[in-house]
Specification:
The chain is of the alpha+beta class. It binds dioxothiomolybdenum(VI) ion (MOS).
Length: 739
Amino acid sequence: MSDKIKDRIIGAGPARIDGPLKLTGAAPYTADHHLPNMAYAYGVFSTVASGRIEHIDLDAARRMPGVIDIFHHDHFPDLYRTPSSFAEENMVDETRLPFEDDQVYYPGQFVALVVAETFAQARAAAYRVHVDYSADAHAVNFEQAQARDAKPQPAAGSGHSRGEPDRAFAAAAHAIDFTYTTPMETHNPMEMHASVAHWDNGSLLLYEASQGVVFARNVMAKVFGLPPERVEVRSAFIGSGFGSKLWIWPHAVAAAAAAREIARPVQLMVPRSAMFTTTGNRPPTRQRLRIGTDDNGKLVSLSHDSVNTTSMVDTYVETTGSCTKSLYACPDLRVSHATLGANHGTPTSMRAPGAAPGLFALESAMDEMAETLDMDPLAFRKANYTDRDESKDLPFSSIHLLEAYDRGAERFGWEKRDPKIGSMRDGDETLGWGMAACNWEAMKMHCDARVSLRADGTAYASCATQDIGTGTYTIVAQAVASITGLPLDRIEVELGDSSYPSGPVSGGSWATATTLPAIAQAARAAIDALKGYAVADGGAFAGASAEELTFSNGEIHDDSDHAVPYVEVLRQQKLANADGEAHTPAASDDEYSFRSFGAHFVEVRWDPGISRLRVSRVVSAIDVGQIINEKTAKNQVEGAVAMGIGMALFEATEYDERSGLPVNNNYAEYLVPVHADQPDDVDVILLDHPDYAFNEFGARGIGEIGITGMAAAVANAVYHATGKRIRDLPIRLEQLMSA
Ligand code: MOS
């Protein structure tokens, strides 16, 4: 069955069906769960970047009111590490268990955990735990890591090479060679990381702020040596994650172990400051771009060699060349990645991992190359367009990048751009116009789902994926509606529980493409079950053949147009539901390369008199296949544009080189764009060309692509306004002031 689905409900823009729950505060987030007899845990976090714990003095903390127990490396149960494997669905980025030994590998590492009757008591006592360290020399940023360990470790298997890029570069008619850097960034979801652990008769129930309850269940089962059936992880509502909540971090293990030790439920919330150190980061990168062209502006060589820092306990590779290898036609090309160990927490995926910093470098370099060639930056990109993925030697399943360029340019007014630096003015302000391509892989995992048509006239759908704030509840309901014809307000959706039919991690922009085909298949199976009941003895169509029946708008029809509501079919057989289940496979990638495309056009306004820079206008044209929900899809791009402005102008997680401690691990000093930084006008054009080679909905996913290319588009606009080419993010005002 692979009916192509495009009807009045798919592509419409209904509001989130869980909106009222969120607006009224009734939606339970992890830390809203306060179980009977629950205790509260608060961490003690390392104040050195590297070293060893010499002594922990607990006397003062133990005397504090309400303290139940204090865990640390000499007082913690023996647990097991999990193998970390995406394929085995037990991925972690930090394999080291909390309190495993007395070593400190990064500042902000858990060194103790106080459990008390209340949150306030646990926190107050945690402040009284005194830890003596012997500190070693540390390297907390790129420069220190390079000084200590000058040889980056190549990340085997993450790169790509074709032709002879070095030889082609040396022979190129025109060439550039520049290095771009991006800083560490922190995800900063609004909702705190939190765990609520409850053991019952040897089984663990864990409420966890998680983008992946199935993976979380599997990891916790490995860590506690249990069969997965004895662990249940719930994450019904998430205040975003941006990748920081993809995998289990040490705090969840610590909370579950503490709960088992004291034989009471335990809630642990990770304070904001520790969310800068112990729940992942986007690592800093150094990216060298070498581009060569012929006299006509055709790429002849492209090399993208990148290094990122990782932690001292695990290797995380920021795959900045993931788009470079296939975005443009180029016969001789290399992308390579390498890592350097540093004393910061283990990095992890952050929205469009690899692509976001990678396209800052590539799309800045493309702008520089266009200028070298005296070509319009958009024309230069169009001249190097390809509809084949040359890294896989496969055609793209569906590509409308040229249309994205043209429609974005037209809406923006690109043809009115005067290429002369600083030439476009409006009063005291200089306008800068820049653009960049955006790009992201489309992925589809395996997925199970259940749909029931119920005797009360409603439908029910469940899947162990999550709604991380993006609208998954709503689009699942739309998928059920598209098959059954039921209105959205008669469709109940349950997500975010590992006991539901297995569903995907909410990451990689694959949740929509993965979940919806399974939901549709389960809905069709429920209808098939219903038809079986209709033709059985005592049914409205007893004796007929099920194949002759059709289902639409909640009714079963035969070819003589006799119609019976499905509720009546169930009533006749005294049945509660007609149930359907689905098990759908991952997408196979041997015929096509599945990727999404787009382009950002950005206007900045630079007032040199008062050194004021603003992004004033953005047009983003996005080609992600069929749009399922116009409202939530636009929301994703608008949010990603804001996050891209943050990446371009504000965000950087800084460490003090001397103390090795984070400097701006709070919302006051880690700058993110606020409303005043948001352009007056963010115009999102959704191209909406279904990609049926990918799945029956034709949808590729939209969560991440909007941030890719955005920082480069801003940097290119800043260059056009000021003549200052900023290759090191974030762009700071002091870099733009004249000497
Ligand atoms: Mo996304 S970085 O895969 O949550």
